[in-house]
């Protein structure tokens, strides 16, 4: 079963200036194909921090995809290519496809009247220096590609594939959907069966049946989420998921028919009405 991890790189995310939406997107896309995202690191623009996270994920169970997001631009704080190469013990090499685009960008900058020095060209060229052995991941109409680096044969043969993608959400999503999911994710794992149930009780009222389900069906993932209504989500193979859903639905129905269940539901409804009344009062005062 293919698994996945992710390393999100960026001081701007850790500083609270920019939200991390890329890991949420990866989680959704992988879940659609039955691939578990088992860990997400958010690290600074720092070689040691990136290396620490990559090293930890390379040591996890295989086959595995390890995504990185961010840090592949031309500014001095863009260090992901260097960090990945160092973590894998590889050299940085210039990719000719990216290099040609960099040359065009240099020429355009010169035409606009910028002073194009050797240092200017060197920094821009950092975007073309990728870990040796990488292969490009490109999308239609895109300028900045990602790269995939196979370790021990790559994720297709029981190893690891490190997928290095830009942090800009629109670029990240396009590369993920057009280049990564079709080639590296789709068809690898069976898609999970999902059942959702709702109820009007506190989670604690169903904890015992939840514990019973987890023990009886270890292959089923159970999640309980507060809200109005409360939500229970079950994921896994179809037969055990359906059996687990039947047990939980039975427990909810038993609560519905009990005096305790009716009192709990009435108390929660009264509290909700009181909150709504307070909200209306505050709006009138405003």
Q: Tell how many strands the DSSP assignment holds.
A: 11
CATH class of the largest domain: Alpha Beta
Strand content: 15-25%
CATH overall fold name of the largest domain? Molybdenum Cofactor Biosythetic Enzyme, Chain A
The low-confidence parts are: none
* Share of residues in helices: 40-55%
Task: Compute the average pLDDT.
Answer: 93
Question: Summarize this, please?
Answer:
The protein is of the alpha/beta class.
Characteristics:
286 residues, alpha/beta, Molybdenum Cofactor Biosythetic Enzyme, Chain A, Alpha-Beta Plaits, 2 domains, six-stranded mixed β-sheet, three-stranded antiparallel β-sheet, 10 helices, 11 strands, elongated
Textual characterization of the structure:
- The chain is built from ten helices and eleven strands.
- The protein is an alpha/beta fold and 286 residues long.
- It folds into two domains: 183 residues, Molybdenum Cofactor Biosythetic Enzyme, Chain A, CATH 3.40.980; 93 residues, 2-Layer Sandwich (Alpha-Beta Plaits).
- The strands form three sheets. It has a six-stranded mixed β-sheet, sandwiched between helices.
- Helix 2 packs parallel to helix 7 and helix 3 crosses helix 4.
- It starts with a strand and ends with a helix.
- The mean pLDDT is 93.
């Amino acid at each position: 079963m293919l698994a996945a991890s992710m390393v999100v790189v960026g001081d701007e995310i850790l500083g609270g200036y920019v939200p991390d939406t890329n890991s949420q997107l990866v989680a959704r896309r992988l879940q659609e194909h039955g691939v578990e995202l088992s860990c997400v690191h958010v690290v600074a623009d720092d070689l040691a921090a990136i290396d620490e996270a990559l090293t930890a994920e390379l040591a996890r169970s295989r086959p595995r995809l390890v995504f990185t997001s961010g840090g592949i631009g031309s500014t001095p704080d863009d260090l992901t290519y260097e960090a990945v190469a160092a973590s894998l013990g590889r050299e940085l090499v210039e990719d000719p496809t990216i290099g040609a685009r960099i040359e065009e960008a240099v020429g355009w900058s010169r035409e606009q009247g910028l002073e194009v020095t050797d240092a200017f060209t060197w920094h821009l060229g950092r975007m073309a220096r990728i870990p040796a052995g990488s292969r490009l991941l490109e999308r239609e109409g895109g300028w900045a590609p990602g790269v995939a680096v196979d370790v021990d044969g790559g994720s297709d043969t029981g190893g690891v594939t490190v997928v290095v993608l830009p942090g800009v959400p629109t670029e990240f999503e396009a590369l993920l959907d057009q280049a990564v999911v079709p080639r590296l994710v789709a068809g690898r794992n069976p898609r999970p069966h999902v059942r959702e149930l709702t109820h009007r009780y506190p989670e604690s009222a169903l904890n015992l049946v939840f514990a019973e389900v987890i023990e009886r069906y270890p292959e089923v993932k159970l999640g309980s989420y507060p809200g109005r209504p409360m939500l229970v989500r079950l994921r896994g193979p179809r037969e055990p998921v359906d059996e687990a859903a039947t047990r939980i639905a039975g427990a909810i129905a038993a609560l519905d028919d009990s005096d305790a269940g009716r009192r709990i539901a009435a108390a929660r409804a009264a509290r909700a009405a009181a909150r709504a009344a307070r909200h209306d009062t505050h709006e009138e005062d405003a």
